[in-house]
Specification:
This protein is an alpha+beta fold and 488 residues long. The chain has 22 helices and 8 strands.
């Protein structure tokens, strides 16, 4: 029964988008980079690729895909889908998303049972955690690594069952799934070890995480500690917000818990005061406030709201310790309240999965899309993020590399080649003045064609197209608001 409920939760909110032939998730944030990254990772299997030449071409750049777990699990689905002439990367993304959502509920139930909860209360706690607005919001935004909430309860299950070796592996899996979930697990291990020594033994999993940290550090040379005000803004969200069914909000950051979950938790907390204290501690960490954020590890935390996974699981433990008897359905009240009233959309939106037929005319080896990506300071909404649909995702169709260097939300630190500056100067969002474009340098880098996305140019497409033609470029094709030009 638990598996069926978990699968229903995993699938049903995705059905409308799938029915429309779309990718489940919002096109305005991380979805397209996640889908593209999944395909790139799957294309380089078996292994753990850390250098990408699809971008920053022809040299390439260090790259760490945010969810190696999804990359490995999605690999066969991507390969088979592509072999059958289908959109393999979307198939792989959807399958692994469904598995992650279902596993987060099912494994949370198993962990709560291992901690002594009865079956029905454990289901209530598992839904509170695994089907929470927090994890559902990750699916809305396309933050693929965030959907693997199952890794934390897997670690809890191993510790509760007193399996030291497996608990170390599970802690490593937490870190592999998401740096933030790993952060929660490590903090939990340090505290829980005072009661269960297996939790301290699980910290051996940090040894296996060293290669992961080194690979990520090679890419994240552009990451810097956030100003206090920006970090706090990425912390606890307002308590009262417009429900998701009444708004369209692609930024599904939420620490929403409602009223019923803390009420039940406080009732259970009379016999579990340490758990209540743990909830308050994690909530404080989630705020992004405090002098401890100047410490070496915590100062690197960019999204403190993601401590909320710890808050949710502690609340789930408390909720699972209340037996409502013949009113057993009340154990699902926290989930029902969250699904109905949280600021996250109850049904996942959809993003276009197809691209224009003009991409069939792309030859490569390098295609220069105009306009390109824009880097924005942390905490500033980047209106160019939807361009990832053509800067990254469209590569699955035209197979040409891109000379542009995405900043990946301020983490990537690879410098843009100087010859791109003339092309980047035509960016309409930054009020730049048009500048001479070095066609000779572009050709030397391997660019053979330029694709102009006229709908992104705010009326300046005629000026740009005229400048390109004056530089010797000729029009190969134009349709769907796109103009493909060949370099001279």
């Amino acid at each position: 029964m638990v598996v069926i409920i978990a699968l229903l939760w995993a699938i049903l909110p995705l059905v409308p988008a799938l029915w429309r032939g779309q990718i489940p998730g919002s096109p305005f944030t991380d979805l397209y980079p996640s889908v593209w990254g999944l395909g790139w990772f799957a294309d380089h299997q078996p292994g753990f690729p850390t250098w990408c030449t699809d971008i920053a071409a022809p040299k390439g750049m260090p790259f760490y895909y945010s969810s190696p777990i999804h990359g490995w699990l999605g690999w066969p689905f991507v390969a088979v889908g592509d072999a059958l002439g289908k959109n393999g990367v979307v198939i792989g993304y959807v399958v692994t998303l469904v598995l992650a959502r279902a596993a987060t509920v099912a494994v949370a139930w198993a962990a709560l049972r291992a901690l002594g909860a009865e079956a029905l209360p454990a289901l209530g706690g598992a839904m509170l955690y695994g089907a929470s607005p927090f994890f559902h919001g990750y699916a809305v935004e396309g933050i693929v690594e965030g959907t693997d909430g199952w890794a934390l309860p897997l670690w809890v299950w191993c510790v509760a069952r007193a399996r030291p070796a497996w608990s170390a592996v599970a802690l490593w899996v937490c870190i592999l799934s998401s740096w933030y979930l790993g952060m929660v697990a490590v903090a939990g291990a340090v505290v829980w070890g005072a009661w269960r020594r297996t939790a301290w033994w699980s910290l051996a999993g940090l040894v296996g995480a060293v290669p992961l940290l080194m690979a990520f550090g090679a890419m994240a040379t552009g990451a810097r500690p956030l100003p206090d005000a920006v970090r706090i803004a990425m912390g606890l969200q307002p308590l009262f917000q417009t429900p998701g069914w009444a708004q369209v909000n692609p930024f599904a950051i939420t620490t929403w818990i409602g009223i019923s979950a803390p009420s039940i938790a406080l009732f259970a907390g009379r016999k579990n005061p340490w758990l209540v204290a743990g909830v308050l501690l994690v909530v404080l960490l989630s705020s992004g406030w405090g002098p401890w954020y100047a410490l070496p590890v915590l100062r690197s935390v960019r999204f403190p709201y993601r401590w909320h996974a710890g808050t949710l699981f502690l609340l789930a433990i408390l909720v699972s310790r209340v037996n409502f008897g013949r009113w057993g359905w009340l154990t699902l009240l926290p989930w029902l309240e969250g699904y109905a009233f949280s600021p996250v959309e109850p049904v996942l939106p959809g993003a276009p999965a197809g691209v224009s037929a003009i991409y069939e005319k792309v030859r490569g080896p390098l295609l220069l899309d105009l306009p390109g990506p824009i880097a924005m300071p942390p905490g500033v909404v980047n209106p160019s993020r939807p361009r990832a649909r053509y800067l990254l995702y469209a590569q699955r169709f035209h197979h040409a590399d891109s000379p542009w260097v995405p900043d990946f939300n301020g983490v990537g630190g690879t410098a843009r080649p100087a010859w791109l500056d003339g092309f980047a100067a035509w960016e309409p969002m930054l009020d730049n003045e048009g500048a001479p474009m070095d066609m000779a340098a572009a050709k030397a880098a391997g660019v053979t064609q330029i694709l102009v996305h006229t709908h992104e140019l705010n009326g300046e497409q005629s000026l740009l197209l005229d400048a390109l033609k004056e530089s010797g470029c000729t029009v190969e094709d134009q349709r769907d608001g796109l103009v493909l030009l060949d370099l001279p």
